[in-house]
Design goal:
With 185 residues, the protein is α/β, with parallel strands linked by helices. It contains six helices and eleven strands. The radius of gyration is 15 Å and the shape is globular. Bound molecules: glutamine. Glutamine binds next to helix 5.
Length: 185
């Protein structure tokens, strides 16, 4: 299995370290040709406005928009996967509210809960919130009652940064999702 991590901006090396722990081959994606033959793409956190601009400048925007490539989006990556007032890929039917918890200094770490009731250290950095779940969306992580992670088909959106804790569980959930569903490309 070949997984790519978008390496235009944001937390790239941390995702690589986690994928290597899972024995997954991971490559850095900077241009369209890097996307060929990928089984999945990680869109890391950073700044969604900047990411959008860089994706459009590098011409990867249209390729990703029109492909069925499974995507895991964390924080800014989750914003681009969902729907908000700015242009996004809208691959997951969720409404996303950017910078929901305030400014950079309002970033925080807190326990979140998985489906099986296990807990996970959630790192929220100027994080967005998932406000509304639409068709085909399955919640998979909660901060109290707030949904902070979900999947839709082979895509996964997390408002926090699982790559910043030495914990492979969310990456594993996504890899299982890709492996257990038939390939369409
Ligand atoms: N606040 C950023 C945005 O709106 C996301 C922050 C992050 O990815 N850590 O795009």
């Amino acid at each position: 299995m070949n997984i790519g991590v978008l390496a235009l901006q944001g937390a790239v090396s941390e995702h690589k370290i986690i994928m290597r722990q899972l024995d997954i081959n991971i490559i850095e994606v900077r241009e369209n040709k890097d996307i060929n033959r990928l089984d999945g793409l990680i869109m890391p956190g950073g700044e969604s406005t900047t990411l959008r601009k860089l994706l459009k400048n590098s011409e990867m925007w249209d390729l990703i928009k029109n492909s069925e490539l499974p995507i895991m989006g964390t924080c800014a990556g989750a914003i681009l996967l969902g729907k908000c007032k700015d242009e996004t890929f809208a691959k997951i039917d969720i409404e996303i509210d950017r910078n929901y918890y305030g400014r950079q200094r309002d970033s925080f770490e807190t326990k979140i809960t998985l489906e099986n009731n296990e807990s996970f250290d959630g790192v929220f950095i100027r994080a967005p919130a998932i406000k509304k779940l639409g068709n085909g969306v399955k919640p998979i992580a909660w901060k109290n009652k707030e949904i902070v992670g979900c999947t839709s088909g082979k895509n996964m959106a997390l408002t926090f940064h699982p790559e910043l804790t030495n914990d492979t569980r969310f990456h594993k959930i996504w890899i299982n999702l890709i492996e257990n569903t038939a390939k369409t490309f």
